[in-house]
Amino acid sequence: MDKNQYLNIFIEEASENLQNLNQSLLELENNPENISILDSIFRIAHTLKGMSATMGFNRMSGLTHVMEDVLQGIKDGKVKVTEEIINLLFNSFDALDGYVKSIIDTGDEGDDDNTDLINVLRNVLSSGKLSEVAGNTRKNDEQGISQSKINVDAFTQNAINKAREMDMNAYEITVHLDKGCVLKSARAFVIFKTLEMYSDIIKSEPSVTDIEDEKFEFSFTVIVISKYDRDFIEKELSKITEVEKVEVNSLEKTGEMLVKTAKADLKTTTASKHTLDTGARQADKTPSKNIRTNKTVRVDIERLDVLLNLVGELIIQKSRLEDVYKDVSKDKNQVQVYEETLKHLERIINSLHDAVMKVRMVPVEVVFNRFPRMIRDLSKELGKEIVLSMSGEDTELDRTVIDEISEPLVHILRNAADHGIEKPEKRLELGKPEQGHINMRAYQEGNNVVIEIEDDGQGINFEKLKKSAVEKGLATAEQVHNATEKQLLDLLFLPSMSTADTISDISGRGVGLDVVKTKIESLSGTIDIETEVGKGTKFIIRLPLTLAMIQALLFYIGEERYALPINNVKKIVKLKTDEIKLVQNKEVWLMDETIVPIVRLDKVLGVPRESQPENTVQTVVVVNKGDKLYGLTVDRLVGQQEIVIKNIGKYLSNIRTISGATILGDGKVALILDINYIAQ
After folding, report:
1. Are residues 459 and 531 in the same domain?
2. How far is CA 407 from the centre of its chain?
3. Does residue 135 sit in the same domain as residue 162?
4. Which of 22, 91, 169, 415 is catalytic?
5. Which domain holds residue 25?
């Protein structure tokens, strides 16, 4: 069988099944006695086994087969669902997900047999518990497999494996400080800074937070990825004052890592029962959700794009007919027939347009479903109790937007978990419940979709924000002193900006929110922040429903026509020259006690324009960017029109004031302006 013919179908169906599996495992963790959830997991594993076997992916098929046997053992009462069993099933999920990602990247499942994980699963099935498994794992250590000082999770393991594929080195480094060292945390900070010069730190034991709080003796261990050799790193660390000894060990064996992962995850936890319930535990209060099965037909998105382009051409021709209509003779009978035909054509186009767009629309649930597991893992890693609540998952977005929005949301959620939510003991001191809450909502607002992420954590400390901005050279002391709350919050989106006290593998490097803003603005969206110290922070993301067709305002600047999305247009006014004032060398207009900066589009775009006499009337288009208003000067208006957005291509992609182009009814091109870069 030529499996390449069916590879895309396999990848899509496997990804969908894995998503359902992840969701079901989270529900099983909170409702271990719910047989329907277990049945659902069993069916998914059975499906994955059959699919992978048919495609010749034997390693994936073998793992799902053993996983299926364990699930059957749970159903038969031979194996009891415990936290350790759940962790083992999640490890199995991560391994399956790794196979699928490898297939997506290379077309092959790779060489990892996951032998150690399979052995653990088989031992569970034979013994019905994990105590004997731990013994078997220790036996492996006695046979020569060196034991890591750090509990290696699936994320770390994957990072190490990826590094090896790129011919990078993975090291486990243990640093021993001099027993006479007084400021251990300060010395550790210097060590971390040195390591960051030559490597990427992916794991630390104790955690970075504990090291910062000096909750360690005189040594700590990190796992790093580096292009430098072991001797060089050891030499550079040994140069640091009060460093007594440095141990640098290479991590080479993939199998070794898996054994350690199994040992770490199978340990009996000492956390309280409350901690075990964190993450996605909403299922305790609500009935288990059935996995939704839609009656759908999978269509290659490229075929949809062809259909969409044809719809676009129809719209262009409709506009052309409207222009021709102006030149038609005033024969009443002919005009009437023409109008009826044009209206009929418009109805057909609108219906076809709506149908095509609905095909392209995907519920945000596709993205949201990834996050409960992530929050579960983060809550355990951070030692926090975090509950993620989601609503509006059925809100739909264009597929092209859905594909791009996942990464920004991950950044925001990780920041909320790490920086926003406090430790349980801290929350109790503040009179808050132990559990921190993150609420994620999606809803439609006009032609936009709004996604809100809100936490009930500590909020953003403006004094710390000011201090960090000055220290990093992003603003002067005078600027931050006179800045408004909104201006201070905008500093968070600058590159290298961070208010974190310590750097961890979760956050704190200042490479998050600037990436988030850039990505959202590339989707013609906006992002805003609302915060209250001690109460929490809310991120508000607004995204267009689609990036294909929009209602736009057309206008002239000089002899060139330009377009603006009508959603951004607040109002259109006629201003006399003396109504525009000069404040701090910037033109502004006072509108209803709101100061509106004036942007001269002819100067921004470099369009030549004839000088106008004093006191002439100036047409100004007032647009909103988030909660800010700007006035854009134009020469004359054309009107509102539905336009088809065309990509301007890679050669013009560096022109940030232009987001795209459209072809008008007369065959000429009009450029679409990007509000995010013009209004600054």
Report:
1. yes
2. 2
3. no
4. 415
5. 4-145
pLDDT mean across residues, the chain: 78
Q: Are 20 and 141 in the same domain?
A: yes
- Spatial neighbors of 356 by CB under 8 A, at least 6 apart, are 304, 307, 308, 311
Q: Which residues pair with 398 in a beta bridge?
A: 361
Please name the residue that has the structure tokens 């004093």: 614
pLDDT tens for residues 403-447? 788 888 988 999 899 888 999 999 999 999 999 999 999 998 877
Of 124, 145, 166, which residue is a domain's last?
A: 145
Encode pLDDT of 1-28 as tens digits.
455 667 878 888 888 888 888 888 888 8
Cα angle 406, 50, 369; round to 5: 20
In a domain, 35, yes or no: yes
Beta carbons of 318 and 338 less than 8 angstroms apart = no
Per residue in 587-610, pLDDT tens? 999 888 888 999 998 888 888 766
Question: What is the C-alpha to C-alpha distance for residues 675 and 562, in angstroms, rounded to an integer?
Answer: 12
Query: Is residue 350 included in any domain, yes or no?
Result: yes
Q: Check: pTM over 0.85? Answer yes or no.
A: no
At 151 the pLDDT is 62
Q: What is the pLDDT of residue 348?
A: 76
CA 551 to chain centre: 28
Q: Are residues 411 and 472 in the same domain?
A: yes
List, as one string, the DSSP characters of 566-590: GGGEEEEEEEEGGGSEEETTEEEEE
Active-site residue, 415 included: yes
Cα–Cα distance between 656 and 605 in angstroms, integer?
11
Residue with tokens 């150690």: 116
The pLDDT-based confidence of 614 (bands split at 50, 70, 90) is low
With cut-offs at 50, 70 and 90, classify the pLDDT of residue 118.
confident
Q: Tell me which DSSP letter residue 327 carries.
A: T
Q: Positive or negative CA dihedral for 210, 213, 217, 223?
A: positive
277, pLDDT greater than 50: no
Indicate if the pLDDT at residue 82 is higher than 50.
yes
Q: Are residues 206 and 313 in the same domain?
A: no
Q: Which two tokens stand for residue 7?
A: 């590879």
pLDDT band at residue 262, thresholds of 50, 70 and 90?
very low
Do 370 and 321 lie in one domain? The reply is no
> Active site residue: 16, 46, 151, 176, which one?
46
DSSP string covering 471-528:
HTTSS-HHHHHH--HHHHHHGGGSTT----SS--SSS-SS-SHHHHHHHHHHTT-EEE
293 located within any domain = no
Residue 1's Cα: distance from chain center in Å? 38
- Rounded-to-5 percentages of helix, strand, coil across the chain: 50, 25, 30
Instruction: Single out the catalytic residue among 29, 68, 84, 396.
Output: 68
Structural domain count of the chain: 5
Is 68 an active-site residue? yes
Catalytic, 393? Answer no
Report the first-to-last Cα separation within the chain, whole angstroms.
57
Q: What pLDDT shows up at residue 324? A: 64
Could you write out the DSSP letters of every residue in 184-229? HHHHHHHHHHHHHHH-EEEEEES-HHHHHTT-SSSEEEEEEEESS-
Same domain as 124, residue 175:
no
CATH number (domain holding residue 557): 2.40.50.180
| pLDDT at residue 139 in the model | 37
Q: Which residues contact 342 (CB under 8 A, 6 or more apart)?
A: 318, 321, 322, 325
CATH of the domain at 241: 3.30.70.1110
